[in-house]
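Run log, item B.
One chain of 89 residues. Sequence copied directly from the ordering sheet:
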Amino acid sequence: VRSNEEGNIGFLSGRERVTVLLSRARDGLILLGNSDTLRNAKNKRGAALWGGVLDSLGERGLFKSFPAVCQFHGNAPSQLLDSAGALHK
């Protein structure tokens, strides 16, 4: 997971690393990360790479939000977590 205002995505800017990341799943794949950081990465090749991946997932209806549950109350949130501000809505 990469999430920072500087747009540093480290090794996630490497096409070979992303290919390995996306191709090794056997039964399913869950990606957790900050799409804004990936799309706006300081490394322009990484930003273009992840922009394509995220666009492709979105076009297939596979880019979804995260259904978090309160660890103390066991209640589902009133809405799914689809952004950093979703916790405060």
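Observations after the first pass:
- The chain has a mean pLDDT of 83.
- The helical segments are 15-23, 35-39, 44-59.
Flagged for discussion on Thursday.
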